[in-house]
Amino acid sequence: MKTRFFDRLIDHGTLVIHYPDANTQLIGQGTPTAHIHLRDRRVLARLLSDPEMAFGEAYMDGDWWPGEGGLLALFELYFANVENFGSSRILDLARHALRGLREANSRLRARRNVKHHYDIDHDLFEKFLDADMQYSCAYFESADMDLEAAQQAKCRHIARKLCLQPGDRVLDIGCGWGGLALYLARHHEVHVTGLTLSDDQYEYACERAEREGLADRVHFAQQDYREHVGTQSGGYDAIVSVGMFEHVGRPQYQVFFDQVRRLLKPDGRSLIHTIGRSGPPIEAAQGWIEKYIFPGGYIPSLSEVAPCIEQTGMSLSDLEIWRLHYARTLDCWSRRFQNHRDAFRERLGERFCRMWEFYLLGCQATFRWGDLVVFHLQLARRNHIVPVTRDYLYKDLPQAPRRIQENEFECTG
Hints:
Shape: elongated
Number of strands: 11
Radius of gyration: 22 Å
CATH class of the largest domain: Alpha Beta
Oligomer: single chain
Structural class: alpha/beta
Order of helices and strands: HEEEHHEHHHHHEHEHEEHEHHEHHHEH
CATH topology of the largest domain: Rossmann fold
């Protein structure tokens, strides 16, 4: 019987399979518990043929749906037994051979990858993101902070790490819809150049800079980071990149950090904010999410990034690891997406909505129970540029850090 396959996978918790004839089957025991409803028994064969890809695709097609606890309960059960879900050695070898091709993001391929995700539908992003349209991990300084406040806290924290002075020239690589660039210009009186490859992001950011009276200090360009030559004065005082490094691809890591160093002035500093992996590098491609959400992307381990920084001669002046902040951010995004799901279904279709909720909840689960974190890599051309303690980052906060509670995953806005 095909369900014996699940017997070998589930050592912790319980999977309840609901069949079309109203029969149910329990696999495992105890918590966590998750429910899966099958459209017909043949769905099992599809799921077992390639679990890594088929579970997401079959969910998009409506071949199965979750029961009590929803998708998040299924992801929790998966991560409770993740060590049992190893893919076949043959598939691992094949993916390893192809990974260089998939991540070899030429300028043309990089533009195509960006359009695949970021130019889907402006209203989609506007509805589930915060008012500033920040599409990266927020920074929840307190338990009662809502998404809007947490995204502003992220901008404030990053600005401090850049050690900005009025009149500084700043480069924002992967500027998105312009929120961070405009924040830096407004609050720190700096001049910012923002780079994006997205048509929608570029048009929106330019229009917003004009509307907010900041066009004289913020300039946006549709340009690949590898094509950017710098300022007329020869370099930038600070370079920031938030949520873009995940799209660079391993073959381009050294090119990226070499470009950061080249574009920085001798007393320049940089902050790279990227999703990272707390465990070792992986050999396989990301499967479902790489195919449907972020083609050409890769989440790095620290051991894959550090050697490239070392080769530039820049100083890694600070490394901060954000844990759980992205799980809470994604929880907020998921709830907002569901609030507008009916409108999205009418315009984009039911299959798209299933794909998007599988993406948001799957990522939330991986940050909550898996090995994904956020790296804050602070770099400096010279070792003395950045303060030698972290006091400058936290001196204005009202209270000391404390432990995160489990219920703080709940979205408050």
